[in-house]
Amino acid sequence: MNNYPLLDSISYPDDLRRLSLEKLPALVEELRAFLLESVSKTGGHLSSNLGTVELTVALHYVFNTPSDRLVWDVGHQTYVHKILTGRREGMARLRMKDGVSGFPRRCESHFDTFGVGHSSTSISAALGMAVAVKHKNEDRRVIAIIGDGAMSAGQAFEAMNNAGVIDANLLVILNDNDMSISPPVGALNKYLARLLSGRAFNAARRAGEKALATMPSMLNFANRVEEHVKGMITPGTLFEELGFNYLGPIDGHDLDALIPTLLNLKELSGPQFLHVITRKGQGYKLAEADPVLYHGVSKFDTNSGIDTAKPSGKLTYTQVFGTWLCDMATADSRLMGITPAMREGSGLVQFAEQFPTRYFDVGIAEQHALTYAAGLACEGLKPVVAIYSTFLQRAYDQLIHDIALQNLDVTFAIDRGGLVGADGGTHNGAFDLSYLTCIPNMIVMAASDEAECRQMLTTAYHYPGPAAVRYPRGSGTGRAPGTDLSEIEIGKGQVCRIGTDIALLAFGSMVPPALVAGEALGATVANMRFVKPLDVALIKQLAASHKLLVTVEENSIIGGAGSEVARALEDIGASCELLRIGLPDQFVDHGDAAQLLKSIALDSEGIVSQVRAREAAYSG
């Protein structure tokens, strides 16, 4: 166990602000060591947090948080923020049930000014706060911290476009940790940022503008000269055009550059934009060398690092998809693979290597991803969009208007359907069966194992319209998916176990626990496979031969598969009873996925208990 003498003296940012500037580098080293020690024991996001230690310290040191508002984007880089704001002890239960969240949450701390998890929301939220501050005539600052990846999303630029004409006191900090916008920084850039953020420079500029206002031609000339000169030595022309005063880039690991610049910016009014360069994994050589591997980690030994040679065991659904995509692309040259910045998470690494001209990472731009796919489909190509369930929510209008309404041939491989565990409510795929099934022209499938997932993907691909295959995070039953590209009949379920009185109609990931529950209940179990179109013939058959039908799904109980079965039973005039089991009408928190399913009675034991409770109520 490491010793942390400076960190031990800090419970909240007020304690931090009492330290001298000379002690901050030592505090940064302690924070980085504590962060590494803590996350190696709990798992979590590591690379991004190691890269923002100095920036976080500087922000809390300069600004009077929480009165001054820090609005983080995505939020998986806020562990140091949590440590400095009274939650250091809670890091021992990071992302565990009833423990500290991996993202900022308003209900967790008043230092968390805005709850996040998805990207590119910070500037919009911060602008709203800044306008509120102005309207209420309060003395506080608002700062949005956004990464270079999140800047690729349209919402970030929509917010900046709006901010440039509102004249609110807003500071946007671009944390550029991939050097994707600018080359490495040097002494000139550091000097320039400090100069351009200083009150003397800005006062002189305002005085010059006032003097030249009576001579429009000279004012226009002066503005053009300033823009040209700054454009030659800074990459901020775009942000200046949007109405921001651009500063940087500066080294985000250099407190001697960060703190004076932030102090200067604190005194300026209007929209300000500070560009800082950081390095993912900073201070831990293994993470610096492979920031992707150390982005999201399980428990590991800090000395030896992550064991990449460890046997993987069962295939994950993501791996099944990745292999299928390469096989199908080999069979059909029309296939195009699309991901919104989730190549590794969605299983497209192998595809990107084998088919580089048919692979498209569009950045964190889900709306664009879908309409781009629609354009490809219009010209006879066959796009496959690999996307998480929770991220597909961000492109719902494009799904309806640009794809389904035009009945375009787009295949959706929807990963992380159901509860995802440690990432919690912002990342749970809790609603896709509900929001997909109500869309005309859609085919919606839910895979119960690896082999079925592969067959469903092939079925969706060959269907000449929009089709979605939903599968959960992690591994399945261990059933080998095979290597062929066989299909299944659209709209046909399968009876897996024959019983009496009770029939469990299970969808996707709920088939395995339903089979276990079926044994305990002596019930029939059906793998329904399709949510749309439903196997109405099978439902009619089961309704005629059983007293109670029970739908089981890892999706919101409202509007999901169970609701579709209820509608089908009403249409055929069935007289049997129906019990719908699924995710409750609440946001399920973070924690171990199996533990969470048990807590909401959606494991095999929970299914049995809910059915028996219904039987007892019915017989009573």
Give a quick precis of the structure.
With 620 residues, this protein is of the alpha/beta class. It contains 27 helices and 19 strands.
3D architecture notes:
The chain has 620 residues and is α/β, with parallel strands linked by helices. It has three domains: 5-289, Thiamin diphosphate (ThDP)-binding fold, Pyr/PP domains (Rossmann fold), CATH 3.40.50; 317-470, 3-Layer(aba) Sandwich (Rossmann fold), CATH 3.40.50; 495-619, Rossmann fold (3-Layer(aba) Sandwich). The protein is built from 27 helices and 19 strands. A seven-stranded mixed β-sheet has the order 9-8-10-11-13-12-17, sandwiched between helices. A five-stranded parallel β-sheet has the order 2-3-4-6-5, with helices on both faces. Strands 14-16-15-18-19 form a five-stranded mixed β-sheet, with helices on both faces. The model is unreliable at 179-185 and 227-233 (pLDDT under 50).
List the helices and strands and how they pair.
Blueprint: H1 5-8, H2 13-17, H3 24-42, E1 44-45, H4 47-50, H5 53-62, E2 69-72, H6 79-87, H7 122-136, E3 142-147, H8 154-163, E4 170-176, H9 187-197, H10 199-212, H11 216-233, H12 237-241, E5 245-251, H13 255-266, E6 272-277, H14 285-289, E7 296-297, H15 317-331, E8 335-339, H16 343-346, H17 349-354, E9 359-361, H18 366-378, E10 382-388, H19 389-392, H20 396-404, E11 411-415, H21 432-437, E12 443-446, H22 450-462, E13 467-470, E14 494-497, E15 501-506, H23 511-521, E16 524-527, E17 530-532, H24 536-545, E18 546-556, H25 561-572, E19 577-583, H26 593-599, H27 604-619
Parallel strand pairs: 2-3, 3-4, 4-6, 5-6, 8-9, 8-10, 10-11, 11-13, 12-13, 15-16, 15-18, 18-19
Antiparallel strand pairs: 1-7, 12-17, 14-16
Helix pairs in contact: 5-13, 7-8, 9-13, 15-22, 18-20, 23-27, 24-25
